[in-house]
Design a protein that fits this description.
The complex is a heterodimer of chains A (248) and B (649).
Chain A: E1 3-9, E2 18-24, H1 33-46, E3 69-70, E4 73-74, E5 96-100, E6 109-111, E7 114-115, H2 118-125, H3 147-157, H4 164-168, H5 175-187, H6 195-208, H7 219-223, H8 231-246
Parallel strand pairs in A: 1-5
Antiparallel strand pairs in A: 1-2, 3-4, 3-5, 6-7
Chain B: H1 2-7, H2 26-33, H3 39-42, E1 46-50, H4 54-66, E2 69-73, E3 91-92, H5 104-114, H6 121-141, E4 166-167, H7 173-190, E5 194-197, E6 200-208, E7 211-219, E8 225-229, E9 232-235, H8 256-263, E10 268-269, E11 274-280, H9 298-301, E12 303-307, E13 325-326, H10 328-332, H11 342-357, E14 366-369, H12 371-377, H13 379-397, E15 406-415, E16 418-419, E17 432-434, H14 452-475, H15 485-504, H16 510-525, H17 531-551, H18 563-587, H19 611-614, E18 616-621, E19 630-635
Parallel strand pairs in B: 1-2, 1-9, 2-5, 9-17
Antiparallel strand pairs in B: 3-4, 6-7, 7-8, 10-16, 10-18, 11-15, 12-13, 12-14, 14-15, 18-19
Helix pairs in contact in B: 4-7, 4-14, 5-6, 6-14, 12-13, 16-17, 16-18, 17-18
The chains are: A alpha+beta (248), B alpha+beta (649).
């Protein structure tokens, strides 16, 4: 099939950006979306033109590098699917596809479709861990964790840190990302000791990075490639409230 | 001094520094004998860690916890994205929770045997010893391993093992372990003990008076090339399976850091030991730029088959009667069946496809059928165990594997070869440490499933933090400044390479040249190899390299974010490295593990090992661009284990 691509091009973080148009010809339905873009890029490179910059790495939906807003939807709108696992069989011959970067104040654009998501790392650095040094840990079975709790912690911990939740949110809120980590560690007995300070510090950092507030529209849950549940935001709000009260 | 021996080339002798005494006591004895750095002195030492996968992140965090000053680099935009994250199946540990006969010794022996007796006995034993600590450490960090209803950790069996020793977190074990290490790293970054440099790529190792003294790296956003001196450099930069172009590795995985260290004098060991994983989604077409693994945990419940008759290969799987199916792994290897190790399963799949019985497009595929298990356990149980894998299969192929069997085919996945290191994880260059997949040490000629995660974390959490202290305390490496002429020289060379890549202004993308190289290697140096094919590859690689330097197109500038430039630099290194890979494969005139030379096989087609002539590690030393490298053998001596013939029948 043949497609028309409207793609955001921006030289660097300071320069203004604009849409450009490219044709993608003879696209196979078995191509992934990124393979389609790579093919376009190969053509550009062969003609000595600068390829379209976008982040990607594992192409298995787990590293969280890929970050494209496709026709207005982060990751392209296939349920529970990251851009790298989106296949061209979901598009139609002759279609025009608009491709944009993540857009949020906390994610400054570096070039074309690549944005700087270091703000998410800084939120984890603010408290998204359990403070144990290497060595001296007790036997893994000394602390039983019920299957239900372990499963729920795993549901939260499945987050790949891609930032689609921020990109889709009208407030550019990172609540789903932060709630996933707060819940993963807060649910487990190992993480209980730091539960209060963790949630307070991570939320404070989230605000400092310029992410917006949550108005519970649920668009984050809808686009999350790992289908992280909105319930974790409710859980974090409760944890945050309790921590505030206890630490007044 | 080792540094002087390098100058003498062929006369160099390799000392693995394996401690004396009984196997089981070596590591304890060594830990006691190693010198310590006092807490107050630790902060005087700066360490550069390159790579933030399981090995790099765990090492950087652990070193910082001890009090060393750490500078940590990764080319991804965040340390959480290193390719360890994609490991699906699990991590082995000799916990023996299920009481099914496991022990440190059994894990050691399985790993040694799985590696076809081409790994170092003492290293493998230590790996098995520390395996149990890894699980405890990860649990303490909050890794949500799978649990029983009673709250205890659960295990499963995995390819190549007859006991259940694999711990897992759904099909995302690598992700969860890496997040544990990444979070430990983040804690140190917040504490100011680790300075993190994301989107930075190491371009050179700086060696001064024979010692590794730092790196030169390029900021991938600004294009700036800068020097980073340190008292020790740790490379945790993963493997080179992308030399085959199509592999299960992430697109960014490359050989650049280890290859450029090799060009500065570090020996490259066993480059021909490359693992082809049996259970990947088959290639769909020319456009394909990456292959996807289906965790081999599926082989626990799945049965692998092809039609018995070539004329049935185009039929729908459901239309082929039970009696007309060849469950070839069960037939050939009755005691291990579908759980036969990776090298053996891969070659068996190639063999049935070569006989014209392969299924799917191009006849390069075999069925992995969970139909029996779905019938026995119900779809819901299978969904709980493998749901994410079935989803992934459907996303990629558009087919529902609950209704019809999956199609799989082997693909390049992991490399056992890497930079040579001694028992202390230090290369022949003092001060250069190499951990995780980037080194060669623990898996011999073939790695068992769920052992890569174990090795990465063993190296980073429990081995390197001890051995690096011994280097500091005994060698007392001096401080070096970034203004040292060797750093300036390395910066100039890195800038010159960038300028050279940009100046070719040819007609071909680096990807098209990489694809051509990969196809050649897959063909001549893939699942099976022979002398004529390897010689042909060795003739064609220099031609392809010349084509690269005459005709590559790299648009844009050096002083900006330029992905075409980054990639071209990595492909340039693959073009050089590929030659060493084929040379090693040609030189090793035996079949062992993943290295299958067609000339050396038993009458029934199994690998024919030659312990008399090839029980050694082949450590290659570069002699410059115009002279062939010199191979230094490190003999493999087995004090405890008996070098048996590997049989899974």
């Amino acid at each position: 099939m043949n497609l028309t691509l409207r793609i955001w091009r921006q030289k660097n973080g300071q320069a203004p950006g604009q849409f450009g148009t490219w044709e993608a010809k003879d696209v196979s339905p078995d191509m992934s979306f990124l393979e389609m873009l790579e093919t376009v890029n190969e053509g550009l490179i062969e003609r000595g033109q600068e390829p379209i910059v976008f982040d990607s790495d594992c192409h298995e939906g787990i590293c969280g590098s890929c970050s494209l807003v496709i026709n207005g939807v982060p990751h392209g709108g296939q349920h529970g699917t990251a851009t790298c696992q989106l296949y061209m069989r979901h598009f139609k011959d002759g279609q025009t596809i608009t491709i944009e970067p993540w857009r949020a104040r906390a994610f400054p654009i570096l070039k074309d479709l690549a944005a700087n998501r270091s703000a998410l790392d800084r939120i984890i650095q603010a408290g998204g861990f359990i403070s144990v040094n290497t060595g001296g840990a007790p036997d893994g079975n000394t602390l039983p964790v019920s299957k239900e709790i372990a499963d729920m912690a795993m549901d939260a911990s499945a987050c790949i840190g891609c930032g689609a939740c921020v990109a889709v949110c009208k407030n550019a809120s990172a609540m789903l990302f932060v709630a996933a980590k707060v819940s993963h560690l807060g649910l487990l007995p190992q993480g209980k000791a730091e539960k209060d300070r963790r949630v307070l510090h991570m939320v404070r950092q989230m605000d400092a990075e310029g992410f917006g507030n949550c108005t519970v529209t649920g668009s984050c849950e809808a686009v999350c490639p790992k289908e992280i549940s909105l319930n974790f935001i409710a859980r974090m709000n409760r944890d945050y409230g309790i921590a505030l009260l206890k630490n007044r | 001094m080792i540094a002087q021996e390098i100058g003498t080339g062929a006369n160099m002798t390799l000392d693995a520094h394996i401690p004396s005494g009984p196997l089981a006591g070596k590591w304890d004895k060594h830990r006691f004998e190693m010198k310590l750095v006092s807490p107050a002195n630790k902060r005087k030492f700066e360490v550069v860690v390159v790579g933030t996968g399981l090995a790099g992140a765990s090492a950087a965090a652990s070193l910082a916890e001890l009090g060393y000053r750490v500078k940590c680099f990764c080319f991804q935009d965040s340390p959480r994205r290193a390719h360890s994250i994609a490991a699906q199946g699990g991590i082995n540990a000799a916990k023996n929770y299920p009481s099914d006969g496991d022990s440190v010794y059994r894990l050691f022996y399985d790993t040694l045997k799985g590696g076809d007796f081409r790994s170092r006995e003492a290293n493998v034993y230590r790996l098995a010893q520390v395996s149990a600590n890894i699980i405890d450490q990860c649990v303490a960090q909050g890794v949500p391993f799978a649990r029983e209803y009673g709250g205890l950790l659960t295990n499963r069996s995995f390819g190549g093992a007859q006991v259940s020793r694999t711990f897992y977190a759904r099909g995302q074990t690598g992700q969860q372990l890496l997040l544990g290490a990444y979070q430990a790293l983040c804690r140190q970054i917040a504490g100011g003990t680790v300075k993190m440099f994301p989107r930075m790529e190491m371009l050179d190792l700086v060696v001064i008076e024979g010692q590794a003294k730092g790196i030169v790296a390029r900021n991938l956003v600004s294009g700036e090339i800068t020097s980073h001196p340190a008292e020790a450099v740790v490379l945790a930069t993963g493997g080179y399976a992308n030399v085959f172009y199509l592999s299960t590795n992430a697109k960014g995985c490359n050989v650049t850091a280890t290859w450029r260290a090799h060009k500065k004098g570090a020996l490259f060991a066993n480059p021909c030991f490359t693992q082809i994983h049996p259970t990947c989604i088959p290639v769909a077409g020319e456009h394909q730029s990456k292959l996807t693994l289906m965790s081999e945990s599926l082989r626990n419940d799945g049965r692998v088959w092809v039609p018995k008759r070539p004329e049935d290969h185009g039929k729908a799987p459901g239309a082929i009667a039970e009696a007309d199916r060849d469950y070839f792994l069960e037939r050939k290897y009755p005691s291990f069946g579908n759980l036969a190790p990776r090298d053996i399963s891969s070659r068996a799949a190639k063999e049935v496809c070569d006989s014209g019985r392969g299924v799917g497009p191009g006849g390069r595929g075999v069925y992995l059928d969970l139909g029996d298990a779905i019938g026995r356990l119900g779809e819901q149980v299978i969904q709980e165990r493998y749901g994410n894998l079935f989803d992934m299969y459907e996303k990629i192929t558009g087919e529902n594997a609950y209704k019809a069997p999956m199609r799989i085919y082997p693909a390049a996945h992991y490399v056992m070869g890497g930079l040579w290191v001694d028992y202390n994880m230090m290369s022949n260059l003092p001060g250069l440490f190499v951990i995780g997949e980037a080194n060669f040490s623990d898996h011999g000629a073939n790695r068992l499933g769920a052992s890569a995660l174990m090795q990465g974390l063993a190296d980073g959490y429990f081995i390197l933090p001890y051995t690096i202290g011994n280097y500091f305390a005994s060698v007392k490496p001096a401080r070096t400044s970034a203004s040292h002429p060797e750093f300036k020289k390395a910066e100039q060379e890195a800038n010159a390479l960038t300028a050279r890549l940009l100046s070719v202004k040819g007609k071909r993308s680096a990807a098209s040249l990489h694809r051509q190289l990969g196809r050649l290697l897959w063909d001549k140096c893939g699942m099976t190899r022979n002398e004529a094919g390897l010689k042909e590859a060795l003739k064609r690689i220099p031609e392809l390299r010349a084509e690269f330097w005459n005709n590559v197109s790299v648009p844009g500038q050096g002083g900006e974010l330029n992905q075409a430039l980054e990639y071209a630099g990595r492909v340039a290194d693959f073009m050089e490295f590929a030659e060493l890979l084929c040379l090693d494969a040609l030189d090793r005139r035996e079949s062992c593990g993943c290295h299958f030379r067609e000339e050396f096989q038993t009458p029934d087609g199994e690998a024919l090992r030659d312990d008399q002539h090839f029980a050694y590690v082949a450590a290659w030393q570069r002699q410059g661009p115009d002279r062939p490298p010199v191979m230094h053998p490190e003999p493999l001596v087995y004090e405890e284990a008996h070098m048996s013939t590997r049989s899974y029948k």
